[in-house]
Design brief:
Layout lengths: L2 E4 L6 H10 L4 E4 L2 H5 L3 E4 L5 H10 L3 H9 L4 E4 L1 H4 L2 E4 L5 E2 L4 E7 L8 E6 L1 E2 L14 E6 L1 E4 L5 E7 L1 E9 L2 E4 L7 H15 L1
Parallel strand pairs: 1-2, 1-3, 3-4, 4-14, 5-7
Antiparallel strand pairs: 5-6, 7-11, 8-10, 9-12, 12-13, 13-14
Length: 201
């Protein structure tokens, strides 16, 4: 089936599809369970509130399917809110359970800096990883978020400084996440998506 972008009513789909078209990556956009079950790679986009997005995944019977695909080794890339959903829980508007595919939780960015964290920020490379193969340290990416993931250091491939360390790219096995928007990060973002394309074959 190839790469499937999950369509669950919560996501900036148009710009993501445009970016994948630009790097000539084959994909389908679908919320159909059979199509997603047959995917060899999955992209989970997302904008908005954590709990509302989880509700949509539950209503569409996608939670168990995503867990199954993760367990069987399918590469999964979460983008922005889609990355946050990969974690165990979020404190946004009260406690809410996430997909639990990656160790950690989602916390509010401290109010010592302007909220939301919006605009361009440079990436600090924390670990060597193939997802960074086409990029260089201090490349700038575009963020829009008020919450960040609190996870163990071994999962943080790259980060940005914004009062605290903001995990920008995370990875735990076959599960990847980008807190920023690669589809809005010009050539830097396209290079990251190219690396994902190469990763999934």
């Amino acid at each position: 089936m190839g790469t499937v972008i999950i369509d669950y009513g919560v996501g900036n789909i148009g710009s993501l599809m445009g970016a994948l078209d630009a790097i000539q990556m084959d994909y389908v956009l679908s919320g159909d369970l059979a199509v997603i079950d047959g995917a060899t790679a999955i992209i989970l986009p997302g904008v908005g509130a954590f709990a509302a997005a989880m509700d949509e995944l539950k209503k569409r019977h996608l939670v168990d399917l995503l867990k199954k695909k993760a367990e069987t080794g399918t590469p999964i890339l979460g983008i922005c809110l889609g990355m946050q959903l990969l974690f165990e829980s979020s404190e946004e508007n009260g406690f809410c359970e996430g997909l639990g595919l990656i160790e950690g939780n989602v916390k509010a960015i401290p109010a010592t800096v302007k909220i939301p964290h919006m605009g361009w920020n440079s990436l600090i490379f924390n670990l060597k990883d193939d997802i960074l193969k086409n990029n260089a340290p201090d490349d700038y990416v575009y963020y829009v978020h008020s919450y960040y993931v609190n996870t163990v250091a071994k999962n943080i491939i790259a980060s940005s400084e914004y009062g605290i360390q903001i995990p920008g790219i995370i990875r735990q096995g076959n599960i990847l996440g980008m807190q920023f928007h690669p589809e809005k990060s010009s050539d830097v973002g396209l290079n990251l998506l190219k690396a994902f394309k190469e990763l999934v074959g």
